[in-house]
Amino acid sequence: MPKNDIVIRIGGESGEGIVTIGEVFVRIAAFSGLEVYTFRTFPAEILGGHVIFQARIADRPVLSQGDEIEVLVSLNQEGYDNHIGELNAGGVVIYDSNRVQPAGGGDDHVLCPIPVSDLARGMGFTRGANLVMIGAMIQLLGLPLGKADQVVTRRLGHHEDLLSRNLEALGLGHSYARQQVTQRLPAYLEPPTEGAGQRLVMTGNQALALGAIAAGCRFFAGYPITPATDLMEFLAKELPRVNGALVQAEDEIAAINMIIGASFAGAPAMTATSGPGLALMIEALGLSSMAEIPIVVVDVQRAGPSTGMPTKTAQGDLYLSFYAGNDEPPRFVIAPSSVEDCFYQMINAFNMAESYQMPVIVLSDQALAPRVETCPPFALDQVRLWKRQMAEPGAGNSFERYSVTRTGVSPMTTPGTGGGQYIAEGLEHDEKGNPDDSPQMHETMTEKRWRKVDSARHDVFSLDNAVEEWGDRDAAIGIIGWGSSLGPVKEAIVRAQAAGYRVAALFPKILFPMPDVRISRFIKGRRVIIIPELNMLGQLGRVVEHRYTHQIVRNAVDIISLNKYQGLPFRPVEIFDEIVQVTQALTRRAKMAPAQKVGQPSLRY
Amino acid sequence: MRTLPEPIAVRELKSDVKPIWCAGCGDYGVLNAVLKALSDLRTDPASVVIASGIGCSGRFPAFVSTYGFHGVHGRVLPLATGIKLANPELTVLAVGGDGDAFSIGAGHLPHAARRNVDITYIVMDNEIYGLTKGQPSPTSPLGMKRKASPYGTTDEPINSVAMVLCYGASFVARGFSSRPRELAEIVKRGLQHEGFSYIEVISPCVTFHDTYGLYKELTTPLPESHDPSDRTAAVMLALETGVKHLGVFYEDARSSHHAQIERLREKSGGEFSLEDVMARFYR
């Protein structure tokens, strides 16, 4: 029986080809009809420094990087020593036997020595060692050589010379492994022989960028920052092709002011950054709220305050996105949960920015942005764009750009339109845009701007991708989460249900405005709500406690924050264990004093 | 530049908002020069955007009946860059003061200059922070005593014309608000120049740092022999002490930012379809 759901890790120094081996291997797996999900760490240095490339490969959709490692690929001693401790008992080690000496611990594992260096040297092509290793891997793990040839040809097709040598190296590793390793390994794959549907193999940042173009984005300004940079690089290539423009700005403050200017002049516009960049953009985010100019700002979150850990993940910018800014600037916040969702939430982001004339922050993270997932092709013909409400100005000097309306949305004009002249104003202003700091005007305009949030709350939750809710409807335990922890939560719930536990879950994709009706209803029926987040303070947890105090107190619901702040994403087992513990505590409580709290109270600072 | 068959009179180019500036403020002269330039060039006010930052001069757009954008402090250049790139048909003016340009927003100047963004940037230099009531600015004379510098300032003033010339701007000029007719001519040349036009205007603050007398003495037209295509000569003239030359120091005709971007579009070539881009990611 093939296992058909395995986790492979390649670890070692950056610059040794680890990422190449990993990327080519997962593409061969995807090309063979399997589903893939990668997880990688990045070294802090440009060259050198430790990296991990991990891939989970299965014959059904994969939602997380998994809990355990079944196969370790080691190119050198360090790559073996650093990771062997994490390999499952009975797991497989595929290694370069010229460079790796398995330690005593090797007894617990199935060893597959391949003299990769010697084989490559033997054919006079030492640089082909990576391909030799890939050849051996596909043979040992059950992927077809024909598909591997196709993937390598696709990557190197334009270098004919290099291509033939690489294919030779691939075949060499493959045939060596076939002759020398005859036993069936405990972990291997069996790709479907037919019927594997069309799938995309894409990263989160690529899906965001493609979503932006589909949503009508025609202007981008940004400043390089890990882990958001490749979104800019993608658009640098594509935007000019749709008559758009991209500027690599001198800093993040310039970037956000450029997109505000471009949007004012009529081009749907965005920037992408990470936490430190978003921190620099806060003043101008307020300008976008105040002058009512639509913009989209992607924040690919990374761990730690200040420079922190640029190459590690976190969900620490929820407070920043919700609350940062002088006084109370209204804005929207959206958090996609998977590569596929990145595309569709980007459409929502532009639709909300354009139709309510407001800034929208899209919260991705370092785990989601660079990882490769297989997902269904995007339904491009289903994309519906919501446009700006445009005014038809009359003659004369009477256009009221900031007219006070029932929805809060004031029809606008684009420079160039005769009779539509107005001043986009960061000062408090009257309906025509003229500065006005009278008590009455500030009250009226503050309410008008915030009324757009109410209007959005009323409109957007009819979208079927605004909130994802699943699980046992009447379960005592509910999980509320956000962003890219959805995958691990889904897997944990499948496992919990299989083990007889009952649990429900709710993930708002549109985080602000909050789906109050859905969340209130979700809280009401539960006894415990678990809120897993990759931060220490439990930011969504605190927002939920604050916002739904009434429902929580009246229904005696315990809110438990499950926090992880190591720079790493959740593993499904961590969520699963929490479900088990909370269920056991609930059972104990039923036998004891009913008022006893379940678990530790949330940390508060 | 979108023009009208008949010029619009200056008084019609004024908005119905009355300037908040002190009587005698140099900025009135700049406003009048800009209105005259727009009128003389028969510019369609609906195709003009005046962007500004924060400070006394930041209020400028509200007094003109064109489109305008009053943004945040120091960011007028990125704002104007975005406006121009999104619609190159627009005539874009950026206006502001010395604090906006050389202090909080100084980091944007070299980049607008090297990109050669096709905008006209008018800096109303009064050598003081006027809106916050008289603190020293990056162009205040050394040793100036104010409440924030009770023992005198310690920092050398910036020579903005020399600085922007060295940043590689394709049009650099200096005007004086007390000479509005000559200033209007400089603004017209700036508006017609395709590329980044930098115009420093000596615009005294009557309330906190009155330099009218000083600059009536120190200013003099650029020598007639000066060749505005000679950047080195322009820098030398800008660095001269004891005198402030007025006029166009430098002008060249290299390609503007939006023209360069248009070229990138041609290079990127081919029909675009979202399906094709997505298809690159099929397994």
Would you write up a description of this structure?
The complex is a heterodimer of chains A (605) and B (283). Chain A is of the alpha/beta class. Chain A has four domains: 176 residues, Pyruvate-ferredoxin oxidoreductase, PFOR, domain III (Pyruvate-ferredoxin Oxidoreductase, domain 3), CATH 3.40.920; 182 residues, Thiamin diphosphate (ThDP)-binding fold, Pyr/PP domains (Rossmann fold), CATH 3.40.50; 72 residues, no CATH class; 125 residues, 3-Layer(aba) Sandwich (Rossmann fold). Chain A is 37% helix and 19% strand. The model of chain A has no long low-confidence stretch (mean pLDDT 93). Chain B is of the alpha/beta class and 283 residues long. Chain B has a single domain, classed as Rossmann fold, CATH 3.40.50. Helices cover 34% and strands 17% of the residues of chain B. Chain B starts with 9 loop residues before the first helix and ends with a helix. The model of chain B has no long low-confidence stretch (mean pLDDT 97). The interface between A and B is large, with 67 and 55 residues. Strand 15 of chain A pairs parallel with strand 2 of chain B.
Nutshell version of this structure?
The complex is a heterodimer of chains A (605) and B (283). Chain A has helices spanning 18-31, 77-81, 116-122, 129-141, 145-156, 160-180, 204-214, 229-238, 252-264, 275-291, 318-323, 339-356, 439-460, 486-498, 516-524, 539-547, 549-554, 572-591; strands at residues 5-13, 35-40, 50-58, 69-74, 87-96, 110-114, 200-203, 219-222, 245-248, 269-273, 295-301, 332-334, 359-365, 372-375, 423-425, 467-471, 477-480, 503-508, 510-512, 528-533, 558-563.
